[in-house]
Amino acid sequence: MQVSISGQHMDITAALKQHVSEKMEKIIRHFDSVTNAQVVLHVEKGDNIVEANIHTKGATIHATGVAGDMYSAIDDMTTKLDRQVLKHKAKLNDHHRAEGGLKHAVGEI
Question: Among positive and negative, which fits the CA dihedral 14, 17, 22, 28?
């Protein structure tokens, strides 16, 4: 998987890159069919904002984290992203969804 980390109107330090990479590795462990990810860090009106897009099979997942500290914003974004990835994974693995409609259509009346 490719992780692209960029900054708008700010320099990305090695420590920020490492923190983002570690957090994205956690998400990849939960869902291995991630093809690539883009992470954009920027500061707007005193708020640190982190946006991420993850491309997977069949979906593009987006999350945004906002905080006073850039590391807190990264943590907030990865928490949201992780929750969405787990939800998407559950949707893909839900084999009872197709059966449920069939049971109700043919079920007892």
Answer: negative
